[in-house]
Amino acid sequence: MTTVAGSVLLPGDPEYDDERAVFNLNHRLEPAMIVVPESAADVQAAVTFAAGQHRPVLVKTTGHQIVGQAHGAVVIATHRMNDITIDPIGRRARVSAGVLWSDVIAEAAKAGLAPLNGSNPTVGVSGYTLGGGLSPTLGRSQGYAADHVRSLEVVTADGDLRHVDAESEPDLFWALRGGKGNFAAVTALEFDLFPVPRLYGGAIYFPGERTADVLRAWTAWHPSTPETMVTSFAVMRMPPVPEVPEALRGKFLVSVRIAYNGTTADGERMIEPLRVVAPAVLDTVRDMPYIEVASIHNEPTDPVPYYERGIMLREFPAQAQDKLIELVGPDASTELVIAELRALGGAWDREPAVPNAVSTRGLPYSLLGVAVGPLSQEQHLKSLVAELLDGMKPWQGDRRYVNNLAPDEAADAAAIYGPERYERLASIKKTYDPTNMFRLNHNVAPAA
Q1: Which is nearest to 65 in space by CA: 147, 131, 148?
Q2: Is 44 a residue whose pLDDT tops 90?
Q3: Which of 137, 204, 275, 386 has the most CB atoms within 10 Å of its CB?
């Protein structure tokens, strides 16, 4: 391999185990080599080496969503590539491949700006954005994170470093934004920021025994709210562990998550119908600086052993509500830690000015199931999630949100994207990655 400024690690090397680790403790990578780059040139060297060896390439930031175990692959671990540049006048950020959302949020906040980040601040910007990016804070009014990418710097399978935008490489630009990691190794990306220094947000936790009351109230309430209100509903069976806030520890709860980009007075008035449904166990909804938005979902920031999978729903009528209550409500025997239903619509349904490959526009709900436990319980964890999602199949949409697919899910990419979009993706794949080097994902195969 060409000399790299970063690290090149083989199995048995002292840092190999640390660098192959991912956020999900139940998922292990077994690559032939790990390259820890410090620059785009290092990424080029890694891709060129992999091509010469006919090895697949997997790019990893935190590994919140990794597909496959990378046997025989070259893994590119990007965490040392962590440069962030904020343009407060142009309201844009340029970040290197290894940057986390927590760092972007903190830097953007200094200029009174906010990104379209996810619910967990420890997620990497690149993978989240390439998969679409479903922001639970500003997405309903602004759309997917992928809609606001202005340019990317990538290394394609031929080892070339390319600047990709709507003018320079329109087809690749379309495919990268929504096509996940199928087309290139991203080394940097530039995207829009928004003048949002604060939100009215948080979560209202109710006793789980009131699941039906809260679900029906939320389902009737949220469609009439403005696009500046983003909300979700979650049934939670919280484990009795110190990482869980004491007020919630070991309890069966139902939660409504709120993120409102408007005045506190309007927000309080708007959510009052939810607050009166039942006595709250805990109510954290308040005016907050944007840098505190991770507290809305309060997700784990340290690695956890878990299994999760999601589907999209095309509708959520009364029968579907009844079924969800049956599956996860107070009379259910499930051990799922979380079943979350996110209400979409608004800008998530609108095609951006520069269209992209995101496939889930027009589907009004995202449903996610999460089971927590060690790898020795893998089949049980999978069965818990399957029971939820299979039970909701009568209302399942015809496309999938790629960021919510399981790491071992044998998902047909044509079913994820729909036949027309998949055909275009496969054609672009043939142009930029004809040998399918970037295949350790929910794979778009090169067109025949």
Answers
A1: 131
A2: yes
A3: 137
pTM of the predicted model over 0.85: yes
Helix 264-275 and helix 211-221, axial crossing angle in degrees, nearest 10: 140
| Close Cβ partners of 27 (under 8 Å, ≥ 6 residues apart) | 63, 66, 69, 407
What fold is seen in the domain 7-77?
A: 3.30.43
- Quote the CA–CA distance of 443 and 67 in Å, as a whole number: 10
Q: What is the pLDDT of residue 411?
A: 63
Distances in Å between the alpha carbon of 124 and those of 48, 81, 96, 103? 24, 11, 10, 10
Q: Give the residue-averaged pLDDT of 10-22.
A: 95
First to last CA, the chain: 31
What CATH number is given for 84-195+417-432 in this structure?
A: 3.30.465.10
CATH of the structural domain 198-404, one choice from 3.50.50.60, 3.40.462.20, 3.40.630.30, 3.40.50.1260:
3.40.462.20
Q: Examine the pLDDT at 360 and tell me if it is beyond 80.
A: yes
Task: Name the 3-class secondary structure at 427.
Answer: helix
Tokens of 142: 């602004």
**C-alpha–C-alpha distance, residues 261 and 255, integer Å:** 20
The pair of structure tokens assigned to 395 is 């209302």
